[in-house]
Amino acid sequence: MNRPLLLGVDIGTGSSKAVLTDVDGVVVRTAVRAHGTSMPRPGWFEAEGEGMWWTEVVALCRDVLAEVRSDDVAALCVSGVGPALVLTDSDLHPLRPAIVYGIDTRAEQQIDELTARYGDEQILQTCAARSSAPRSPTGCYASPGPGLPGMPLRPRRTPWWSRTYTHASTWSGWVHAAFRH
């Protein structure tokens, strides 16, 4: 290895960016790719995961590594938008656009039903019991984003649900699995 380099990729709402630095933080190369999201219905916010989160990440990595040896990359970090629900088949191909973070409000009714059934305090206790992180002062109330709370009630409303999925994960879990696949 000539010199250790660090590669960072950030997937944002409107674009993804990559930066290649040396271990002292000196920028070697950068790249940016714009992308869009869709709102197929009021309150819905979706992203085409395979294109935005896989094809784009690979292209950005190729862009910043074009003039360096990939053997020189000591570490890779991919960060980005908040939680997103990605349902894939056994080959990790998304079955539908990903449902993207807190601005997608399609599960408001389901969250209201879960909150009425269990109450805010039970939801907070359940989150705290399942998390290794210290409990935040703001707690972790159920919210209408794409997370798993709304999943049990979605089948009655969404025809795509009947398609067989093998994996349900966040965008970052999917990207990590795709790198290893």
Describe the structure.
This protein has a 4-stranded mixed sheet, with helices on one face. It has a 4-stranded antiparallel sheet with strand order 4-7-6-8, covered by helices on one side. It is elongated, with a radius of gyration of 19 Å. It has helices at residues 49-65, 108-130, 171-180; strands spanning 5-11, 15-22, 27-34, 46-47, 73-80, 84-88, 98-100, 167-169. 24% of the residues are buried. The protein starts with a strand and ends with a helix. The chain contains 3 helices and 8 strands, in the order ββββαβββαβα. The protein has a domain at 5-106 and 164-180: Nucleotidyltransferase, domain 5. With 181 residues, the protein is of the alpha+beta class.
CA radius of gyration is 19 Å
**Average pLDDT number:** 77
CATH topology of the domain at 5-106 and 164-180: Nucleotidyltransferase, domain 5
Helix content: 25-40%
Distance between the termini: 26 Å
Strand content: 15-25%
Q: Would you tell me the structural class of the helices and strands?
A: alpha+beta
Q: List the strand order in the largest sheet.
A: 3-2-1-5
Count every beta strand, where a strand is a DSSP E run of 2 or more residues.
Answer: 8
